[in-house]
Design goal:
Blueprint: H1 7-15, H2 23-30, H3 38-46, E1 51-58, E2 61-67, E3 72-73, E4 77-78, H4 82-87, H5 89-116, H6 136-151
Antiparallel strand pairs: 1-2, 3-4
């Protein structure tokens, strides 16, 4: 359960999302020692959260390149679905809680700063909630449309952009009674 909620694990997953890397390359990027990454990388391999994309013979050594590309689709959307999600359900739920908690901590910090500095107009987190009546197919379509909207935004001027994490959780309101 601790695996995917570990910041080092998350950093490794994102490090090899777009470019396959060796342990040495990952360690250099994370400012860590390669020897401290072998255990978490082995755990990630065991749970299929990363894969070996290539092996190269360098002298007497075999250098392995790792990827997590299979977990991601379209930009920063991590997708754990089907058998992979079922096999790693505890980790997936822990990761979701950890991600929501990061956002809530930023929101709390922003609200506390706004309380003391009335002139602050910058916010790093937002919370919104809405309940609507939909059929199941409408609900699925709304979720797809939200993802599509995020992916289709204009990418003309990237100079002023910052990375934002969207953790969208939608659920059946009365499902708590089931």
């Amino acid at each position: 359960m601790k695996l995917i909620s570990d910041p080092k694990i998350e950093a490794i997953l994102y490090s090899v999302k777009n470019k396959d890397k060796t342990v040495k390359e990952i360690a250099a990027e994370l400012n860590d020692k390669p020897s401290r990454l072998y255990y978490p990388i082995q755990k990630l391999l065991t749970t299929e959260l990363i894969k070996i994309s290539e092996e190269k013979q360098i002298g007497n050594l075999i250098e392995k390149y790792y990827t997590s590309r299979h977990l991601f689709s379209e930009e920063e959307v991590i997708k754990l679905e089907g058998e992979l999600a079922i096999k790693n359900s505890a980790s997936l739920l822990t990761h979701a809680l950890w991600t929501f908690n990061k956002g809530l901590n930023l929101l709390k910090s922003d609200l506390e700063k706004t309380e003391t500095d009335k002139n602050q107009d910058y916010s790093r987190a937002m919370y919104g909630e809405m309940t609507v009546s939909l059929t199941n197919s409408e609900w699925v379509k709304v979720n797809e449309e939200i993802h599509k909207l995020i992916r289709s935004r204009s990418k003309e001027d990237q100079s002023e952009t910052k990375e934002y994490t969207f953790s969208l959780l939608t659920y059946e309101s009365d499902s708590e009674s089931h």
